[in-house]
Amino acid sequence: MATPLDTVRVLTVNTHKGFTALNRRFILPELREAVRSVGADVVFLQEVLGTHEKHALRFADWPNVSQYEFLADSIWTDFAYGRNAVYPDGDHGNALLSKFPISQYENLDVSISGPERRGLLHSVLQVPGHDNLHAICVHLGLRENHRQQQLRLLCDLIDSLPPDAPVIVAGDFNDWRLKARNVLESCAGLYEVFDRTHGELAKTFPARWPLLRLDRIYVRNVEARNPVILGNKPWSHLSDHLPLAVELKL
Hints:
The chain is α+β, with helices and mostly antiparallel strands. It has one domain (7-249): Deoxyribonuclease I, Chain A (4-Layer Sandwich). It has 6 helices and 12 strands. A 6-stranded mixed beta sheet has the order 3-4-2-1-12-11. Helix 4 runs parallel beside helix 5. The relative contact order is 0.17.
């Protein structure tokens, strides 16, 4: 029997498909080392590539597995991938890396219209000593009316879960107008960990001069401790978004 755990360490990061801002340099190996250094138990990834045939031919250090498998390596034994966008050269979407067994997962398509493809990756984790932990990796749309519809779909998903189950919803909300907070508090009973601890959401975009509060970690039925913005080097040079990390007491 595994030793019961009371604390889960969480990291969320928009990987920008393994490239620096403006796609100037391929830095996935550097990103893997940075992700490892955090020591997170569960990692929420957005804009991660499943495949890309042209990039594989162009870059000598391109991994021979998917980006999420490359990032997981031998540290995170379980992973889930939700393919959202598919194009001639490959595909990308959301992914979850977990040190705990993933008993099931499902990618909910929340694309509204047009070419922009979005999804909610819902995974169920088996944390020793606890019932199911629900982890939902989010990347919402760029248009406000799309985001509002996607938030309602997210609320529907959370409302379908047991009311006493621990829930983590993390990722890139693209919510620069700060409309998601009231919606998720009222319809799903979630609170945002930076908002609860520091009284304001974290500034994460653009990474080198963060002005917009786009990335979030919402939770329910857990206690958040020590949320931090990973804003120093190398993080400020590894994506166009800054990652967020937090400890959660179950």
